[in-house]
Amino acid sequence: MMGILMINSLMILPAAAARTFSNNVREYTLWSVVISLVSGMSGLIVSYYWGTASAATIVLVCAGCYVIAAVTGRCRRGK
Fold first, then answer.
1. Which pLDDT does position 10 carry in this prediction?
2. Nearest Cα to Cα of residue 62 among 7, 4, 3
3. Would you list the DSSP string of the chain?
């Protein structure tokens, strides 16, 4: 069950974060791929040095990217 939740979050969180930065489908796809790659690589590095589970750490980094994107997106829009 946990694996299914992690896989779903790895598919949804980068796309949701990319939506705040993009104006068209091309930018949306590009930002989603960039966020996924950065989250995956940094999550693996952090999990190696902290000795934690890699998938859970990647999801936490990706969730952090989403929170940052949501906050900066709201600030940029003035809400």
1. 87
2. 7
3. -HHHHHHHHHHHHHHHHHHTT-SSHHHHHHHHHHHHHHHHHHHHHHHHHHT--HHHHHHHHHHHHHHHHHHHHHHHHT-
